[in-house]
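Data follows
____________
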Amino acid sequence: MQGPAVHGESVFSPVMLIGQAPGAREISERRPFCWTAGKTLFKWFAPLGLDERAFRARVLMSAVCRCFPGKNPRGGDRLPDDEEVAHCQRWWLSELELLRPRLILPVGRLAIAQLLPAARLSERIGRQWVYRAPQGWNADVIPLPHPSGASTWFKMEPGQTLLQQALALIAAHPAWQALVAEAAQDAQGDLAQPHAAASARISN
């Protein structure tokens, strides 16, 4: 695995996203989902009320592994092996326990497999599940496919339809709706500030 480790903003949020592992570009930029896969991911979320900026500011972005696993000789990034996954597990599990989110969004097969029994994507995507933590608390889980440019799963059926079903579930979830409302309120405040400043200048 190649460092440095990459992680999102440390935000206290009711929603937690768990990715697979950073790519080479994420390592150089020091932030998750900052290249091709990220562009696709944030295109999924923007119509649901959170653009990239709002999402990064309000959702804890974690990962199964924090360092770049290197390239696969056959092309693309190498999938972290079981030992690497086990070695990094304490980081995202600690975040999960500290945050105790109401909604978890695992992205890709590797992340989904950490929370739910192994199954085909078609049996996981498009439905809402429950994660039962050993400490006694629960969270809803809405899995998503990995938005990698090398993946065709979400571009073909049944992936297209199942992805839209998953996004609809996210949009309807109370934890997500709370973040959307918060972002909208902040946006209104930002719009009001220039008007307030202009009014102050006129009155002076």
Notes: The first helix runs from residue 24 to 29. The beta strands are 15-19, 60-63, 103-106, 129-132, 138-141. Confidence is low (pLDDT under 50) at residues 196-204.
